[in-house]
């Protein structure tokens, strides 16, 4: 049924402007009575950040920016959903067109710029489903014109901790000018100190809310040393590695289209994202777990992500080219690997290739 849905929906969606197609995909999830994916095999279950995930395959931030369809996404088989990025106040983002599909490369470029309905609207939706079950995290960002960006993150933690299973501090979107400068050591240290302090302050009412840091795959290794050091000393609960890249790999088939400004995601991001994930994994030394995102579009790339250091994985662009059936494809492939190796969980695969990935030539 899901495969039939994909086969019918994809040509239609790909005939539309990419942003219109995205809007229609969200509407389809909201209104089409898709069958539930069914219970996951127990061997896919995993406990991370003190939360029990039925399977390790999540949907990355940016698909459901305003928490319109988290329960539909859980229903079609995701193990967790990250809504957002949300900003405190509503904002329109950059002018259209701002979303581009690189079909020949199976990549996406976006410069949406945190288009968000704002925290009031999203809070209302998340509060209404707070007891629905399933793991729903929220990804938070600052308004473009905020006079004090750190204060925006603090305010959002305070407001959302009670209705989200985890909160992701996103300082890695390339489309809000200056945002990624918050990855610089002094700023990051101040940000994380205040964010963790806010989380502790609201914990008596909101409960324990894991705080994750989402980074760019474009950090230098020197920057990454600083970022991981600060994340460890400020005791974040995990990191997401990572966001889209502003770089353009040398071997793109559509280099002209790739000149569009914005962050590149999808298959052309896989090698770089895996490298930065592995580099992060060896620096974190198992102090906290990592979520791997960037370029997953198959069972093989999902397993490579886990072997590079991810305890959980997230997909977005792969869905554009493979449809919702990608979720089942990944789970089937992961289970086949467990069968083949006579293993009962994915734990032993996490980071198994991290050392060898970091020894490879830098991805070009
Ligand atoms: C259209 C689009 C919008 C995105 N919006 C966000 C966002 O709001 N916040 C965020 O942290 N990441 C955002 N991302 C990045 C994704 O969450 C993910 O980190 C990245 O796309 C790499 O995964 P992928 O190759 O599977 O797409 C967006 C990605 C795309 C393609």
Compact description:
40% of the residues lie in helices and 15% in strands.
Q: Could you walk me through the main structural features you see in this protein, from its secondary elements to its overall organization?
A:
The chain is of the alpha/beta class. It is built from 12 helices and 13 strands. It has helices at residues 2-15, 18-31, 70-75, 119-128, 149-160, 185-206, 221-233, 270-284, 299-308, 317-322, 325-341, 354-359; strands at residues 46-48, 51-53, 57-59, 80-86, 99-102, 107-110, 136-140, 166-170, 211-215, 238-241, 263-266, 290-293, 312-315. The strands form 3 sheets. Strands 3-4-7-8-9-10-12-13 form an 8-stranded parallel β-barrel, surrounded by 5 helices. Strands 5-6-11 form a 3-stranded antiparallel sheet, with no helix packed on it. The chain has a two-stranded antiparallel sheet with strand order 1-2. Strand 7, helix 5 and strand 8 form a beta-alpha-beta unit. Helix 8 (270-284) runs parallel beside helix 9. The longest helix is centred in the middle third of the chain and has 22 residues, at 185-206. The radius of gyration is 19 Å and the shape is globular. The site of flavin mononucleotide has 27 residues, from strand 4, strand 6, strand 11 and helix 10.
């Amino acid at each position: 049924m899901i495969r039939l849905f994909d086969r019918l929906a994809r040509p239609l969606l790909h005939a539309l402007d990419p942003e219109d197609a995205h809007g229609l995909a969200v509407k389809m999830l909201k209104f089409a009575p898709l069958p539930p994916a069914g219970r996951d095999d127990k061997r896919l279950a995993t406990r991370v950040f003190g939360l029990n995930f039925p399977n390790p395959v999540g949907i990355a931030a940016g698909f459901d920016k305003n928490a319109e369809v988290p329960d539909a996404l859980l229903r079609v088989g995701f193990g967790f959903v990250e809504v957002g990025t949300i900003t405190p106040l509503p904002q329109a983002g950059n002018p259209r067109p701002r979303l581009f599909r690189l079909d020949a490369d199976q990549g996406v470029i976006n410069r949406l710029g945190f288009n968000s309905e704002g925290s009031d609207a999203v809070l209302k939706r998340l509060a209404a489903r707070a007891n629905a079950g399933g793991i729903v995290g929220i990804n938070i960002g600052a308004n473009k014109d905020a006079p004090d960006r750190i204060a925006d993150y603090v305010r959002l933690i305070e407001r959302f901790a009670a209705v989200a299973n985890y909160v992701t501090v996103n300082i890695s979107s390339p489309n809000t000018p200056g945002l990624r400068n918050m990855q610089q050591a002094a700023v990051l240290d101040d940000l994380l100190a205040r964010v963790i302090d806010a989380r502790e302050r609201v914990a008596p009412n909101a409960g324990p809310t894991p705080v994750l840091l989402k980074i760019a795959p474009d950090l230098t290794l020197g920057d990454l040393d600083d970022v991981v050091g600060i994340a460890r000393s400020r005791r974040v609960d995990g990191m997401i590695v990572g966001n889209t890249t502003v770089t353009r790999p040398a071997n793109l088939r559509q280099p002209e289209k790739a000149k569009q400004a914005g962050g590149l995601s999808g298959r052309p991001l896989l090698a770089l994202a895996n490298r930065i994930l592995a580099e992060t994994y060896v620096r974190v030394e198992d102090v906290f777990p990592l979520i791997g995102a960037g370029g997953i579009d198959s069972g093989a790339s999902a397993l490579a992500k886990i072997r590079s250091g991810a305890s959980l994985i997230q997909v977005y662009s792969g869905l554009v080219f493979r449809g919702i059936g990608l979720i089942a494809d990944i789970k089937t492939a992961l289970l086949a690997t467990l069968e083949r190796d006579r293993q009962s969980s994915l734990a032993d695969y996490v980071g198994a290739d991290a050392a060898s990935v970091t020894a490879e030539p830098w991805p070009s």
